[in-house]
Amino acid sequence: SVDGLPLALELAAARARVLSLPELAELLAERLDVLAAGPRTARPQHRTLRACVAWSYELLDDEEQALLRALSVVTGSCDLAAVAALCPPANDTPGDDTSGNDASGNAPPGNSGVGGHVTGDQGGRTVLDLVDRLVGRSLLVADRRRTGTRYRMLDTIRRFAAELLARRPDELYAARDRHAEHYSWLVAELDSRLRGADLEHVLDRLAAEHDNLRTAMSWLASGDDPEAALALARAAWQYCYLRGHYAEGRRWLRTALARADGLPPQLVGEALAGAAALAHYACDYPEATALGERALATYRELGDGRGTALALTRLASVAREQADYPRALRLQSDALELFERAGDEWGVGHALQLLGLASWLSGDAAGAGAWSTRALRTLTAVGDKERIAWTLLDRGAGSLYGKPGDEDTARGHLDTARRLFTEVGFQEGLAWADELLALADLRQDDVPAAVNRLTASLRVHHELGDRWRVASVLEALAGVAARLDDAAACGALLAVADGTRAAIGAPVPACERPAVDRTRAWLGGRDTGPFPEPATTTEIAAHLARLRLRAGVA
């Protein structure tokens, strides 16, 4: 917790004479003041950590000091473009008092200008010159990564710079504003590229900035610009979906939508559609339906056909998971027609893929194959790797639930889908693929492989909060327990699945019902009494551990 700084380590060792290690670790949160026990014979700048950092800081000129202070609002690390955006205007960088207060005891005046995205000179020097100076003074660290160089402060330096910035409220607010402005611009710029061939690269870029997005959202949510807060939350929802941040994306949108009165209807409609999507992925079907209906009304009032199609898609998805397949297929078909009218190729491919998904879940394997063939042709032209993977998963499921003995064909599609999901880093897709591959394993009597895949799938779906799929995986594991003659585990797993389905209002999908009915029939033939009450997490973990042992899984 002292960033490996030699002086900090030496001073911490001195404090260890009078404090236990846990006490010292707790106090190091205020390290600049705790680490103040250097030898009396040392030079003044080496007697305390604060003096050492202040000495390095005072060697900088005004522009360099101002940039260091501004960079303290960065969470984690940032790239050069963010440094440029945060760099204060050259004419607005007064000197600083590192002792704490001015002669009057008040905080010194600060920078009142918000500034823009500075990409040119700063008083005759480029931003890169300033960064080079800070890195050379060890006040900024350059991390060279595969995706590009990123810059960060050691936490000790960041705390020092943040203290100085806090004494200049106007300068602090300007730095926060520039930070939020830059990251709002970045996520809006990249959002449109989350549906095409550049998906993998764009997701990696956004993931690297996740902490900064969170910081920017917090600042805007507490500020006086509700439109900026809503715009950022709206632009970030697709990223939150693709990287599994369902709960966080919902919080951002819920907070921003609470202040949406009077904001542009188009922006509000897009935010409502995104909020409905994340509520759906979290299996909060009542909220997803309410938000989807609001989005639908907004888009229809605007005469926005594409937006209307997106809202219909969300309502269709809720109906699909609640096993209302006629409604799901009808709404999705309406959405497909609107996407076609709008000339939205991605939307067309997306709608075709979801029609295939609803078909195989309903038990119509042949229909799923027809829809998926059309979807794959359209999405391949668009180049969206995530949607292509979903389509291949649908084709694999269609083969698995279609004619018996087609497991090899199913496995080929599912293996390819899993590889694409891995390349994108899409955890939900990986969990779906593992679940379906486990069913293929069971049909080919490979119980150990199936148990491995199902437990991995269960873990991911549980982490994501996808209770709909958690219930399905638990039912599949109950089937494995029956196969291994473990009635206790079978009954407990079914009971938890039943409780989960009752809580979210989602029955067993039609294609999975025969297998679940067979498991229940097997359990009913055992002398186990009624199904037990839902087991605790610890009990379920114990049942799963026993199943792994019985299956011969290491």
Describe this structure in words.
- Helix 20 packs antiparallel against helix 21 (407-424).
- A hairpin with a 2-residue loop joins strand 2 (121-122) and strand 3 (125-126).
- Strands 1-5-4 form a three-stranded antiparallel beta sheet.
- It is built from 27 helices and five strands.
- With 554 residues, the protein is mostly helical.
Uncertain segments of ≥5 residues (pLDDT<50)? Answer: 1-19, 31-47, 97-123
Distance between the termini: 37 Å
Beta fraction of the residues? under 5%
Rounded radius of gyration (Å): 28 Å
- Overall geometry comes to globular
What is the helix tally?
A: 27
Helix content: 55-70%
Overall average residue pLDDT? 87
Number of strands: 5
Largest sheet: 3 strands, antiparallel
Structural class: mainly alpha
Strand order across the biggest sheet?
Answer: 1-5-4
Short description:
The chain has 554 residues and is mainly alpha-helical.
